[in-house]
Amino acid sequence: MATAPAIDRADTRPDMSDAEWKARQELAACYRIFDHLGWTESIYNHITVKLPDEPGAFLINPFGLLFSEVTASNLVKVDIDGNVLDGSDYPVNRAGFVQHAVFHRNLPDAHAIIHTHTTATMAVCATEAGLLPTNFYACNFIGRIAYHDFEGVTVRDEEGERLLKNLGDKRILMLRNHGPVVMGMTLPIAFVQYWALQRACEIQLATLSMGAPIHVSQEVIDVHQRDIFMAQASAEPGRADFDAWVRRIDKIDSSWRE
Ligand SMILES: [Zn+2]
């Protein structure tokens, strides 16, 4: 299927490598997809990716802009200590930086990280039981999610140790009374995981408003998690989903490519 032509990096930002420009475009697209799907929180929340050709550097959204205003060029490149590397005039949200930096710094496989405050995910994070094994999407995640108790807004470096300890070998952290953090080895993986988690939480919210839910047995959850990979549309996990949504947002406004 046709997509809008890629904007040539050399024409717009000759100071950037091809790898950086590609990472910027993919991340900017992801912000616009989140905007289109309504997974936004005013000028807050973050999706970050590591730069593949620059160890210790990652891209984050400029603080003060809506997700719908993010473009490849205005994403801010920061190092792991919070220094802006690309001369951007935009500030970076400290809460977003501190939280994402602790994972980017300590987990080599956490290439892409998504944190949101959507109503459904925050509501599930605000319940003692957390995500329940009561719907198809939730069964993807049972046993694969970690929880971290609320300590106030995540601006203190010293919380990092406890965030990592509570995360353990999981790559999805439900911040209690706050919201989820989803990490992936690629942005499409983090995206598709987040999409399923968002749906799981929306359905849990609807289910609990209707009465007693049916709990899925561990035996069925094990079968579901063993077989779920067969339902993928592309060899690269999340790629077909991500590219499909890129085509959708291109039909609305392709300025994210700039
Ligand atoms: Zn937050």
UniProtKB/TrEMBL annotation:
It comes from the Bacteria. GO terms for molecular function: actin filament binding. Residues 25-205 form the Class II aldolase/adducin N-terminal domain. One of its GO terms (cellular component) is cytoskeleton. InterPro entries: Aldolase-II_Adducin_sf, Aldolase_II/adducin_N, Aldolase_II/adducin_N_sf. It holds the Pfam family Aldolase_II. Belongs to the aldolase class II family. NCBIfam families: PRK07044.1 (NF005451). This is Class II aldolase/adducin family protein. It comes from Flavisphingopyxis soli.
